[in-house]
């Protein structure tokens, strides 16, 4: 590829009032409206007493914030992306960044909870409209994890140093997925940077279970988590709500002693589907063995918290150093062990493989940080908590848009959906009380965008 004209014959002018950069926002906003987001926000989010009119028209402000996040905004100032070209002809009720910033800063923790309630109800509506949970009649996996989001500056409320040794704020999310569906966020919470990973996890899991049931999931629900969430409160919450659990267990003395009792003939050889890079040993590890033993956890707690279930153990063989001289192989085998406490009904190999799929939550973290959570934009803690909830809402809406577009986009990264279906330029033309979006000829994803456009009730020019 090369330039078609010399620099002297190439000009630029910001002078076309009929262009907009994100034509895909039209079906996105339409879908949000069809699933009742403005009405849910109006009914549930009430910022009574907020000064300077910050609490007025919460539905329009939430819709503006969500649309900006869909277009790639990761700060309050970035929401100005909505006020270019023909956007005012295509949409009504858009708010300025200063108005949206004042709205977020007016939130208290109670208002954040109101917004979360509206988000959960909207996600349920999305699931019913777009079939976000295919396979939910068989099994739904709930994966909980937390992440410290690094922030800068002395004015951030709640920014503290935690276990990562960086200054930030610590947020939890719970994502729901099935073997047929990509993950959506069903619960989220922002905490101080010094908060432990598992703080509040039991109540967040309870919220997530209620949400997936409200979304129509009738099959088995399995809660998966890493060892930071292995606690009597989490197991009790799972049993109280009649769901299964699969929790990694740290290698403490009691666990090591129990693993040592497993006979050698009880190990079943497995092969990882893909090689794993061991950072500790700086080498590839591609095979492992698994075994199981009964284990009673939390014996130091009250009897009502004691739980007996399966302890699945995966052992990974430590390989010799690559630089070992010929003939100087290992004298005896040495293994690294990974334990999982579970009441899964699956047989040994399938249950252990199922737990390893918990890593799907990392995809959601990557999607969020590639979008709205590139920053926590406000100095006020509750404003950032509301921003996190809006980021989760926009993530789920993006997932729904991809599901309506094609099977590929139903499982694609949200950045891919944004680039191929949302960031599509359009020229607006009006006439006879109609509005036509003129889109680029030979757009590579024309068929997928057409499927999305018609699925939300819009029409095509023929």
How would you characterize the overall build of this protein?
With 462 residues, the chain is of the alpha+beta class. Helix content is 35%, strand content 23%. It has 15 helices and 13 strands. The strands form two sheets. Strands 2, 3, 4, 5, 6, 7, 8, 9, 10 and 11 form a ten-stranded mixed beta sheet that branches. The protein has a three-stranded antiparallel beta sheet with strand order 1-12-13. Strand 6, helix 8 and strand 7 form a beta-alpha-beta unit. The chain is globular. The two termini are 33 Å apart. The mean pLDDT is 91.
Beta percentage is 15-25%
The low-confidence runs, each spanning 5 or more residues with pLDDT under 50, are none
DSSP strand count = 13
User: What is the chain-wise order of helices and strands?
Assistant: EHHHHHHEEEEHEHEHEEEEHHHHHEEH
Summing up helix and strand content along with how strands pair, one would put the structural category as alpha+beta
Report the sheet with the most strands, covering strand number, pairing sense and barrel closure: 10 strands, mixed
| Shape verdict | globular
Mean pLDDT reading: 91
Radius of gyration: 25 Å
> Considering DSSP H and I runs of 4 or more, what fraction of the residues is helical?
25-40%
**First-to-last CA distance:** 33 Å
Number of helices: 15
């Amino acid at each position: 590829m090369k330039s078609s004209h010399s620099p002297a014959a190439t000009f630029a002018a910001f002078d076309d009032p009929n262009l907009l950069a994100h034509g895909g926002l039209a079906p996105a906003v339409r879908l949000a409206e069809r699933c009742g987001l403005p009405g849910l926000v109006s009914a549930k989010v009430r910022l009574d007493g907020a000064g300077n009119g910050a609490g007025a028209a919460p539905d329009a402000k939430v819709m503006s914030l969500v649309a900006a996040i869909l277009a790639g905004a990761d700060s309050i100032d970035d929401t100005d992306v909505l006020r270019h070209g023909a956007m005012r002809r295509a949409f009504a009720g858009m708010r300025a960044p200063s108005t949206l910033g004042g709205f977020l800063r007016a939130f208290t923790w109670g208002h954040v909870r109101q917004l979360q309630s509206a988000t959960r109800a909207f996600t349920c509506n999305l699931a019913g409209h777009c079939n976000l949970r295919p396979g939910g009649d068989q099994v739904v996996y709930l994966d909980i994890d937390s992440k410290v989001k690094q922030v800068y500056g002395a004015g951030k409320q709640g920014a503290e140093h935690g276990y990562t040794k960086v200054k930030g704020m610590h947020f939890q999310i719970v994502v729901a997925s099935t073997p047929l569906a990509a993950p959506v966020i069903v619960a989220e919470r922002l905490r101080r940077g010094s908060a432990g990973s598992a703080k509040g996890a039991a109540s967040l899991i309870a919220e997530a279970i209620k949400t997936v049931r409200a979304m129509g999931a009738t099959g088995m629900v399995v809660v998966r988590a890493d060892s930071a969430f292995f606690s009597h409160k989490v197991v009790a919450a799972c049993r109280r709500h009649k769901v299964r659990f699969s929790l990694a267990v740290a290698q403490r003395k009691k666990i090591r002693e129990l693993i040592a009792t497993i006979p050698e003939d009880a190990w079943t050889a497995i092969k990882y589907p893909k090689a794993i890079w061991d950072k500790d040993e700086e080498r590839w590890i591609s095979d492992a063995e698994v075994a199981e033993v009964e284990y009673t956890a939390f014996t130091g707690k009250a009897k009502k918290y004691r739980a007996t279930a399966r302890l699945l153990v995966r052992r990974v063989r430590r390989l010799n150093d690559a630089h070992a001289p010929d003939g100087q192989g290992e004298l005896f085998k040495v293994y690294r062990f990974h334990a999982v406490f579970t009441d899964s009904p699956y047989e040994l190999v399938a249950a252990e493989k199922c737990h390893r799929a918990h890593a799907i939550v990392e995809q959601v973290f990557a999607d969020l940080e590639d979008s709205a959570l590139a920053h926590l934009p406000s100095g006020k803690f509750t404003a950032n908590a509301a921003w996190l909830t809006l980021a989760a809402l926009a993530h789920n809406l993006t997932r729904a848009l991809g599901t309506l577009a094609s099977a590929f986009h139903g499982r694609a990264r949200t950045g891919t959906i944004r680039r191929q279906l949302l960031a599509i330029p359009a020229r607006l033309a009006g006439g006879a009380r109609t509005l036509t979006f003129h889109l680029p000829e030979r757009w590579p994803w024309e068929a997928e965008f057409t499927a999305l456009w018609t699925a939300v009730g819009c029409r095509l020019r023929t």
